[in-house]
Amino acid sequence: MAVASFYRRVLPSPPAIEFPSPEGKRLFCEALQNGTMEGFFKLISHFQTQSEPAYCGLASLSMVLNALAIDPHRKWKGPWRWYDESMLDCCEPLEKVKAEGITFGKVACLAQCAGAKVESFRTNQCNIDDFRHNVIKCSSSEDCHLVASYSRKPLKQTGIGHFSPIGGYHAESDMVLILDVARFKYPPHWVPLALLWEAMDTIDNATGHRRGFMLISGYEKAPSLLYTLNCRDESWLSIVKYLINDVPILLKSEDLKSASQVLDCVLKSLPACAGDFIKQILEVRRQEEDGSTLSNEEKERHALKGEILKQVHETVLFRYVTDILSSSITNDNLKEDIVTVCCQGTTLLPGVSVCRTRIGFKATGVTCMKANNDNLTAISGITVSGGNEQGINILEPVSASVAESTCSSTFDVPVIVQLASNAAITVLLLALPASTWSGVKDANLLVEIQDLFSTENFANPLRNEILHLRQQFYFLRRCADEETSDDLKFPVCP
Question: Which residues form the Peptidase C83 domain (predicted)?
Fold first, then answer.
C-alpha cells in the first residue's frame, strides 16, 4: 500500500518568521548588535538534521554537545571522536527512542551521562521571566545552550512534542530563534518568547508532566574518567530502589555490631544486576593497533585512570568489599563479567555493528602493550558477530604495581576482572547519599560508617570521580521513570 510522502511543510507565519526571510535577517542583525546571538555561531557550526522522525531530542543534544566541544572519549567513525545520535543510548535504547521518541527527563539524563552540566526546569518550577532570563543568559554566551521541549500545536505547526536548541534572542520584539532540528520539515524560525513559553507549558501525555527547558554547559575538565552510572537497562530502577529504599530498612532490622557486618548485610542482598548499573568507561582497540598509536592525551588519560584505581584500592572500604565478595564470586560469575565488559567495549569500535544478543567473546589472556616506555594492560580476546571475528584489546586501567605484575605474566583475566568488579562496587557504595546508612541503630557504629564513606581525605582525582557519580545518582533518583518527582535540578557538590 502506497504511503503519502511530503517535501517539507509550509511554516505557519504568523506566528513564526523564517530565519532567511528579510524580516528574519533584520531580527538576526539587530540581535547580533545587541550581543544576544553569541551562542548562535557555535550551534550553527554543528547544526544537524535529526536522522529519524523521533530523534529530535537526540539530535538537539548531539548538536549542543559538539558545540560545547565535549569529548565523548569514544570513537564515532575512523579515528574520530564525535557525538552522533547513535552514540546517545546510555539512558534509553535507540530502538525505543526510534519508535516512541524520548522524554524530557531522559534527554537531561543523556546530557548528564555524556559529561555535560545540566539544569532542567519544567514550567511549573519557574515562570516566564525566569525563562526569559535564561534565554538571554545562554544567547549572550558561547558556553551555555538552552534546549526547549515544547508542543508544536500552539505554534500552529504539525506534530506534537518536539525538542530544539534556542539559537538567539531579539530583545525589542521579545522573540527567540528556534534552530529546528527537523530541517526536513521546517527551517529555523523566530517565534514570540511568550508563545514558546505557552508551547512548553503543556502536558506530555507520555509522562503526565509539563514540558520545559534545560541549560546545558560543559565542565572545565571531564567530570568522570573511570566510571559512569548506566540507566539504559531497566534493571537500574531495581538497583536504585534497593539502595535508597530497602537498605535503610534492612540495616534497621538487623542487630549489627561492626562495619564488616553492615557491608556484608548490604552486599549479600545486592541485586544480581548491580554490575549493570555502574560501568567502567572503556577504551577498546583492534589488536592490529598497538600501543604506539596512542596519543599523549590518551596515555595521560589512561595513566590518570590507573591513579584513580590505585586510590580506590587504598581505601579501607575496598578491603572490606574484597574480603566479602571474594567468598561469593565464582569463576562462572567472572566469565560472565568478562563477556559483558568486552561485548560492551566492542560496540564502541568504529565500523562494527553489534547486536547485543548475537555477539560472542572469547578471552584469550592479558596482554602487556607497549606505548613508548609505558606498560599498558589489556584484556585480549576475539569477538564474533555475524560470522566475522575481530581480535580486540580492552585497555584495562590498573595501578602501577598490578601493571608491573601483569606484564610479568603473574596475573590472568579472572584476577583483573575481579579487581575491577570489586573496585566498581566500592565506588558505587562511596557514591551513595549519607541517608543510605541512616538505618544503623548503634550511634558509635554509625559514626564509624560515616567516616568509612567520607570523601574528605581522598585525593582530588578520586574525590572528583565520587562527587560526579553522586550527582549522577541524585539525578537518576529524581528522574526515575519521570513519575517520582518534577525536580530535576542538581544538588551543589561540596
Answer: 1-221
